[in-house]
Amino acid sequence: MEPRLTDLQLAIMKVLWARGEATVVDVHEELRRKRRITESTVATLLRRLEDRGLVDHREEGRRYVYLPGIAEDHVRQSLVADFSGRVQGLFSEDTAGLVSRLLSARDVKAEELAEIRDIVERMQREAARDGTDG
């Protein structure tokens, strides 16, 4: 299953991943801090996500408690694969250009840059060990 999520659906999933489980009210409370959204919209979106198998629920009295039905890592991997496919034509042989554009598109903290440097160094070591040019 390759989940395609809108920004709002992804925001709902992030609440569920962070909390482990949540009611419509819980999700609404979390989301309304950053956007105008009604409880009924949250309920509708949770039902739609459940219909797609991305969310599960259990009953607790008269309320539903929603749980993620898909791992965050799976969604991230799917989004990266989709993104990669879309930019392939634009940056086909220009990985450095792609990375440069990604890093320029937002403020990147020094700690994040250090992590990126570590990733690049690890990939260079692996490429050298495997006899590829990376």
Could you explain how this protein is built, in words?
α2 (24-31) packs across α3 (39-51). The chain has a two-stranded antiparallel sheet with strand order 1-2. It is built from six helices and two strands, in the order αααββααα. The protein folds into two domains: 7-68, Arc Repressor Mutant, subunit A; 93-134. The chain is mainly alpha-helical and 134 residues long.
Taking pLDDT < 50 over at least 5 consecutive residues as the criterion, the unreliable ranges are none
Q: Which sheet architecture does the biggest sheet show?
A: 2 strands, antiparallel
Share in β-strands: 5-15%
Number of domains: 2
- Shape category: elongated
> What is the share of helical residues?
55-70%
The CATH class assignment of the largest domain is: Mainly Alpha
Mean of pLDDT:
91
Cα gyration radius (Å): 19 Å
Number of helices: 6
Measured between the Cα atoms of the first and last residue, the distance is: 30 Å
CATH architecture of the largest domain, please? Answer: Orthogonal Bundle
> In total, how many beta strands?
2
At the fold tier of CATH, the topology name of the largest domain is Arc Repressor Mutant, subunit A
Q: What are the secondary-structure elements, in order, as H or E?
A: HHHEEHHH
With strands numbered from the N-terminus, the spatial order across the biggest sheet is 1-2
